[in-house]
## 1
Amino acid sequence: MSARNLARTLFRSVAPRVAASVSRPLFASVASRVAPASSSVFVQTRGIKTMDFGGTKETVYERSDMPKEKLIEYFKNDTMAVLGYGPQGRGQSLNMRDNGLNVIIGVRKDGRSWKQAVSEGWVPGKNLFSIEEAAEKGTYLMNLLSDAAQRDLWKIVKPYVTPGKTLYFSHGFAITYNDQTGVVPPKDVDVILCAPKGSGYTLRTLFQEGKGLNSSIAVFQDVTGKAKEKSVAVGIAIGSGYLYETTFQKEVYSDLYGERGILMGAIYGLFRAQYDVLRANGHSPSEAFNETVEEATQSLYPLIGEKGMDWMYSNCSVTAQRGALDWHQKFYDAASPLFKALYKSVVDGTEVKRALDKNSQPDYRESLEVELKEIDDSELWRAGKTVRSLRPENSK
Ligand SMILES: NC(=O)c1ccc[n+]([C@@H]2O[C@H](COP(=O)([O-])OP(=O)(O)OC[C@H]3O[C@@H](n4cnc5c(N)ncnc54)[C@H](OP(=O)(O)O)[C@@H]3O)[C@@H](O)[C@H]2O)c1
């Protein structure tokens, strides 16, 4: 569906139900931005637009296109069943609840997620259920179990994926690698995706601050002709910033690649390598940590986020700029083959096989925690704790 058609559909799906009362706030976001009364109100909405991303045009969707009143209207007959209460299940469900939607949680009884959900106000039997009960009650089945659990529990969830319901994911993982996961949805339901680009914790805190994490949206199956419209509406309901379009396959390829790369794996590898060389050359932990992590996270990286790389460079000394401009190419050349190997390992399914094998072990959480504790116990991050405790705001 083209962006303009989607704009019309999004508007139409709400407009007839509100036309009788001419609900001003609902129309205001659209009507105030369209041409005088004689022209069609369906012509433009502020939220759906084509933007230039460095020379390539992409269609994006924004929160302003679906204000809270519209969301409530759009989902008034729906029950959003969030299966799983990990970082995403938690963030998405709390944001939808705050947006006025009817949300229920499905998790295994008395597990860690169940206890956390209870502690955050979800009530057993009212809006907190077993996975099966929630899947039975929901019209949107939002599969936010861990990726390994999506494979292991598909036989339990699948019987509830019935005509009229919408199956939702936040990762293209289960569907794209269905040769390994076995997740093949029935042909008669819409299957959509909205993948926040960041942790559920950030999704929640940014939403509470009136900000938003960007998310990608995709459609795998469109039975009703409304699958894309639904993905936009849910994407906004869970508290996203702007939404951009992708496919299930591209989402999972870029996501697995990015998190193993610069977002998490590569950045830690680089931190470690730089820190260790400084320490091996007699620099103190305080100096090594400040020159590696603290200056990056507290000073320079926020500047990149705020105004871009060149702006960060131009706000450093010319000595620093000269060095960075000279050395970035060497790091690019050294890292490029590794990134190519990583992308290949994602596409050929190696990364998925490893994630599924490891994360479906009964003690998966415990063994991950052992590895995380090793990081926490390392000199680098123990030094980091001391550095953080010395930040003026933490010294009281
Ligand atoms: N975290 C992110 O940054 C992020 C970002 C975008 C998209 N995603 C995607 O969002 C989805 C959810 O990710 P997440 O990070 O929120 O979740 P997660 O931490 O990977 O898993 C969360 C949930 O899975 C449940 N679970 C695991 N094994 C189970 C089993 N055998 N039986 C029943 N429940 C089981 C856990 O319940 P218990 O507590 O009972 O074990 C928990 O509620 C995934 O598809 C992920 O790829 C994640």
## 2
Amino acid sequence: MEHIITTASTYEEQLADAVELLQASQKITVLTGAGISTESGIPDFRSPGSPWQKQPPVTFHAFLNQAEARRRYWETRRTLLPAVKQARPNAAHRALAELERQGRLLGLITQNFDGLHQDAGNSPERIVELHGTSREATCIICDTRTSIEDVQRRVDAGEAEPRCSLCGGYLKAATILFGQRIPDDVLTRAKELSIRCDLFLVVGSSLKVTPASHLPRLALQAHIPLIIINVEPTRLDQQADVTLHEKAGTVLPRLIALL
Ligand SMILES: [Zn+2]
């Protein structure tokens, strides 16, 4: 496919090209990042002004080795809970659920762990949560999943470092911390979805974080067309067939309505 020189075309032309590509596709793989959830009130921790700029996030290494880091982990989590609990899917999430209802969605890979794609109506079996989920708790040793609400209640009741009732390992949310490996099966599935689709659509990701940023590259190597929807430019804009620097909640519903 001939790649369009994005700088030379207007926004409306890009929009028309996106509709054409989407209409021609039946097996779309979508990669979503923090940008889709900021419109639901979930902070993007990598943006200026985020809570992480005042206090860097607890790394997996620190969580494993330092009681103070585990305490800080649970404290930070408590301060973020109100925003997370209030968050509802926005128009962009709903548009991606509509894409699935239309039978065009092969898979939905997300860097977010907020569960909003499931809330919007996408089937859990089509979703790959690269960075895990904050809606469950997990044991760092035996990986047994438990209720995050129960664990949070134990923390709130004064248990500084809740442990697994089966093996005694530390419990944490089932998200991937900095320095923690993404499980092989999760990454393998994401890579397969990236090369088996007939269109790769990036929504709300600046493509700065690996391995998520590699996935659209895999698609490009497989000669799969690429659409990028992100407020800020990304490193792959020049290689994408279409780039739309716009809020996902504005442009995605518009695109899907035109299919
Ligand atoms: Zn355990």
